[in-house]
Specification:
The strands form four sheets. The protein has a two-stranded antiparallel sheet. Strands 3-4 form a two-stranded antiparallel sheet. Strands 5-6 form a two-stranded antiparallel sheet. Helix content is 23%, strand content 16%. It is built from five helices and eight strands; from the N terminus they run H-E-E-H-H-E-E-H-H-E-E-E-E. The chain has helices at residues 2-22, 40-46, 70-74, 117-122, 147-151, and strands at 25-29, 35-39, 102-107, 111-116, 160-161, 167-168, 177-179, 186-188.
């Protein structure tokens, strides 16, 4: 009987091991914040290969996880059980989970510019919630707006005013000026000449 115990345990856990291996990276689509790529290997390494810390306490194996809001995560639900800034990096580190990239924007009667998430978040003055979802949805199909609409506070004009092209509306340091280029926003330390 004891000889059968080890093979029985292996056979019992084999589907779980194979299931986890098939799902190394799980991608979740969110309604308002793009996609989230969850890495089983990264989490298993951090948790000492202890699947039961999440399964079936936070997530039920085999069931499609119900959508969870950031507010619920801030209160400890789902990923927020660990991502609280103490046990693991906190939820305000949005780009650690939510995929961001350079976003090409076609402005009618002006041309194309590329919005750089890295640049804007790197300023330290802005976070994801400053734009998403009040100004932009976290999607690639936001409507194109004209420069006139931007001058009236739409789209990029919510932060950059029309007094001088792409000067910040006062939420960033006064010496910070921006100019668009086909490559990316570039920071200038001096006021541009008129």
């Amino acid at each position: 009987m004891k000889r059968l115990l080890v093979p029985a345990i292996v056979l019992l856990f084999l589907p779980v091991i194979l299931f986890a291996r098939d799902y190394k990276i799980v991608t979740f689509a969110t309604e308002t914040a793009g996609t989230v790529a969850f890495s089983h290997p990264v989490h298993l390494k951090a948790l000492g290969n202890n699947c039961t810390l999440c399964h079936n306490t936070l997530f039920t194996i085999g069931d499609k996880a119900a959508p969870v809001t950031m507010k619920a995560m801030e209160q400890g639900a789902s990923c927020g059980a660990c991502h609280n800034g103490k046990r693991a990096f906190g939820l305000p580190a949005c780009t650690r989970c939510h995929v961001t990239r350079e976003v090409p924007i076609d402005i009618p009667s002006f041309g194309a510019v590329v919005f750089s998430h890295a640049f804007h978040l790197g300023l330290g003055a802005y976070g994801c919630a400053d734009c998403h979802n009040a100004v932009f949805r976290a999607a690639t199909d936001n409507p194109n707006v004209s420069m006139k609409a931007m001058e009236q506070g739409k789209s990029c004009g919510a932060c950059h005013d029309a007094a001088l092209p792409f000067r910040s509306r006062g939420t960033a340091p006064a010496a910070m000026w921006f100019v668009t280029s086909p490559l990316r926003h570039r920071q200038r330390s001096a006021t541009p000449s008129i």
